[in-house]
Amino acid sequence: MSAVLVINSGSSSLKYQLIEMTTETVLASGLVERIGEKLASTKHEVSGEAHKRELPVATMTEAFTVMVAAFDEHGPSLAEFPPVVVGHRVVHGGKRFFSATIVNDLVKINIDDLSELAPLHNPANLQGIDAAELAFPGVPQVAVFDTAFHATLPAAAYTYAIDAEIAEKNRVRKYGFHGTSHKFVSEAAAEFLGRPLAELKTIVLHLGNGASACAVDGGISVDTSMGLTPLEGLVMGTRSGDLDPAVLIYLNRKAGLGFAELDTLLNRSSGLLGMTGRGDMRDVVAATDAGDEAAIVGLSVYIHRLKHYVGAYLAGLGGADAIVFTAGVGENSPVVRAGALEGLEFLGIRLDPERNISPERGPRLISAEDSAVAVLVIPTNEELEIARQALAAV
Ligand code: ADP
């Protein structure tokens, strides 16, 4: 019996899961939110029961102490299920990390060096690693990178058509994100279809608050919609996705918006929120049903962009065996799924309307029997994928 502790540390939060790996069952999960504020809130879930508290938690190290105390108080006992490895989600692995990596001092220096590419995430991920080393001395720490799955992108897909010297010097290229999810989901799709991964061409649409598309050929990422940062590509909850880069220059000149304001505009007040006043797809769909004009346009932009990437990746892959929807919107929104694939029957993509609206939760087929392309909904599980990779690394 071996347990893996999975850690996702953010700038003010710690999320964790303890997973028993012979059966791949979650023994406990929890989170500490609002670290550094007056009162943090904590939740520890075990055997279907949630234990919540509010208390001051000043640092990530303290958050780990709180987490260990929650295991002591509510179980399961970490003495009974000692983690054999701690797996950390790390957002940016740049060009250096293309697989899960056992953490040592050099790895930490490299993660730190990549902070300039992910200033909100990598420093927080490092704090989680440092705190875990203190809390679990002698237990190997493994970094699992969001970018790693996309290390296989060909130059044609990752190169931006700008001055090569400037790009090289500043490490400007497409890296791609959500790699852990795209890998998990594309492998689960092959398993669901009972076909060898090596033979399968798959388009994965990870549609959560952040959203990205990925073209997977034989288990290998060959194209993806997010770029240097997670801003490029699809329309997201609060992020714009693709736009003419000159919009930034124009808004700077015309409206006097500086870099900080443009950063906030595109990352925090654009996307569904910017267009419709609502960042949550459930609210947007409800508003369209009520005839809200901005919501109708916003949803149509979201779907238009999605279809654009489906078409691009069908062309890039030379057809697809499967199109897979995952994450909050992908798993739960029949309207978005139907919209994204509407009119693609000429490519052999045919949804079954009944299957699409079925309230079923697990992995499922939603295309019609005569659809040449299998359309699937597969719930993502990034924590399990991190645990698997962390265990495999040691
Ligand atoms: P994150 O990227 O934060 O991990 P999730 O994958 O949990 O996000 O997705 C969150 C999003 O899923 C919410 O913002 C919401 O828009 C969407 N969502 C959840 N349930 C539904 C639903 N029933 N219908 C449409 N959208 C939903």
Count of DSSP H/I helices: 15
Structure ligands: adenosine-5'-diphosphate
Q: What shape does the CA trace take?
A: globular
* Helix and strand element order: EEEEEHEEHHEHHHEEEHHHHHEHHHEEH
Poorly predicted segments? none
Which structural class should the secondary elements be placed in? alpha/beta
Q: What is the arithmetic mean of pLDDT? A: 97
Helix content: 25-40%
Main beta sheet: strand number and arrangement? 8 strands, mixed
Strand content range: 15-25%
What would you note in describing this structure?
The protein is α/β, with parallel strands linked by helices. It is 39% helix and 21% strand. The chain contains 15 helices and 14 strands. Strands 5-4-3-2-1-6-8-7 form an eight-stranded mixed sheet, with helices on both faces. A six-stranded mixed sheet has the order 11-10-9-12-14-13, sandwiched between helices. A hairpin with a 2-residue loop joins strand 4 and strand 5. The radius of gyration is 21 Å and the shape is globular. 43% of the residues are buried. The protein binds adenosine-5'-diphosphate. Adenosine-5'-diphosphate binds at residues 208-210, 237, 280-282, 285, 327-329, 332-333.
Task: Pick out its properties.
8-stranded mixed beta sheet; binds adenosine-5'-diphosphate; nucleotide-binding; ATP-binding; 6-stranded mixed beta sheet; Aliphatic_acid_kin_short-chain; alpha/beta; 39% helix; 394 residues; single chain; Acetate kinase
Question: Could you give a short description of this structure?
Answer:
With 394 residues, the chain is an alpha/beta fold. Helices cover 39% and strands 21% of the residues.
